[in-house]
Amino acid sequence: MGWIGETVDSIKSIQIRQLLTQAISLGMIVTSALIIWKALMCVTGSESPVVVVLSGSMEPGFKRGDILFLHMSKDPIRAGEIVVFNVDGRDIPIVHRVIKVHERENTGEVDVLTKGDNNYGDDRLLYAEGQLWLHRHHIMGRAVGFLPYVGWVTIIMTEKPIIKYILIGALGLLVITSKD
Amino acid sequence: MHTFGYRANALLTFAVTALAFICAIASFSDKFSNQNPSAEIQILNINRFQKKSHGNDEVSLTLDIAADLQSLFTWNTKQVFVFIAAEYETPKNALNQVSLWDAIIPTKEHAKFRIQTSNKYRFIDQGHNLRGKDFNLTLHWHVMPKTGKMFADKIVMSGYSLPDAYR
C-alpha cells in the first residue's frame, strides 16, 4: 500500500505546480489577445475593427472570406464610401457601398441608402420593416483596407462549429502535454 | 527542440510574417504611382421630370460620359469602381448626394471609355425642390487593390441645372 501513497504524493506535489504554471501561461496568451483586440477597437474608433466578408454581394471587389479593416471617424458620411452597418434586430453586419446621402442643414443628421455592388437593387429590402434610410448610429465603420482569403478560417469555424471544438480540444491537449 | 512540430511551427510563423510584410510593401508601392484621370460628362436629354405621388420630385436623364482612368491602375489594382453622383443643396438638406450610375472597371484597357446611358438609379429628391436647381456632377472612383489600402477620389464638374418646369 505504500507505493499508492507514494504515487499519490508525487501526483499531488509535482503536477499541481506544473498545471498551475501552464494554466497561467495560457491565461496570459488569451488576455494579451484580448488586449490587442480592445486596443484595435480604441485606435480605429469602431466596435469591430476587423470584419469578415460573408456574402458575395460586393463581388468582384470583395469575395466571401476576405477580411476588411474598418475605421470610424467623425467625418460626415459621403457617397461612395464602403460602410459596415447593423440593421436593427439583426446582429450580422453588412458591408455595402453608400449610394445616396441626404444631410440635414443644422443638426448634421444624415439619411443614407446603401447597395451592394453586385446586387441589382438597393438595400431597402434588407433594412428593418418600414425603414427607408440608415442613420449615423447604424454605421459601425468605413472599410479602409483589406486582406484576401484570410477570413475563411472564421467562416469555417462559424459554419462548422465541430471544427472549432476539435481545434480548442487539440490546443488544450497540446498545452497540457507540453513540457514547457 | 528539433522535432518536426517545432520546425513546422517556426516555418509557418516565418511564412505568415513574410507574407504580411510583402502585402504591406505592395500596398505601400501604390503611393508612388502618378495619377491624372480625366472625365467629361454631358447631359444629353432630360427624359422625365415630375412630382411623384409620394410628393417627391423625380428626374430621369440621359448622360454622355467620357473618361480616361487608365493612370489609376497599378500592378496592385484589382478593380476600379467608378460612379457618378449628382450633388445639390435644398432648404431642408445641406447636402444631397444621389448616385446616378456606376460601373466596375476590371482592367486598364477598359478604363478609357465613352458611353451614353440613362441613369441607372432613380434620381429622387426628399421633397419637391428640384425645379430650376443647379447641381454638380461628380465622378468618384474607388481603387480596390489586390491587397492593402483602398483609396478614393473624385472630379467635381459644376454648371449643370434642371429645367424650371416639370415635363
Description:
The complex is a heterodimer of chains A (180) and B (167). Chain A is of the alpha+beta class. Helix content of chain A is 38%, strand content 21%. Chain A has three helices and six strands; from the N terminus they run αββββββαα. Chain A has helices spanning 2-44, 152-159, 161-177; strands at residues 50-52, 67-71, 82-85, 94-104, 110-115, 139-147. Chain A has a six-stranded antiparallel beta sheet with strand order 1-2-6-3-4-5. In chain A, strand 4 and strand 5 (110-115) form a beta hairpin. In chain A, helix 2 crosses helix 3. The longest helix of chain A has 43 residues, at 2-44. Chain A starts with a helix and ends with a helix. Chain B is of the alpha+beta class. Chain B has two domains: 1-32; 33-161, Immunoglobulin-like. Chain B contains one helix and nine strands, in the order αβββββββββ. In chain B, the strands form two sheets. In chain B, strands 1, 2, 5 and 6 form a four-stranded antiparallel beta sheet that branches. A four-stranded antiparallel beta sheet of chain B has the order 4-3-7-9, with no helix packed on it. At the A-B interface, strand 4 and strand 6 of A face strand 3, strand 4, strand 7 and strand 8 of B. Chain B: Belongs to the SPCS3 family. Chain B: Its main location: endoplasmic reticulum. Chain B: It is found in: Endoplasmic reticulum membrane.
Secondary-structure element series of chain B? HEEEEEEEEE
Name the overall outline of chain A. elongated
Rg over CA atoms of chain B:
23 Å
Tell me the strand percentage band of chain B: over 45%
List the domain count of chain B as a whole number. Answer: 2
Main interface by residue count = A-B, 26 and 32 residues
* Main pleated-sheet profile of chain B: 4 strands, antiparallel
Q: Please give the oligomerization state of what you see.
A: heterodimer
CATH architecture verdict of the largest domain in chain B = Sandwich
Q: What number is the mean pLDDT of chain A?
A: 82
Keywords (chain B): Endoplasmic reticulum, Membrane, Signal-anchor, Transmembrane, Transmembrane helix
Protein name (chain B): Signal peptidase complex subunit 3
GO biological process, one term (chain B): signal peptide processing
Membrane topology (chain B): Single-pass type II membrane protein
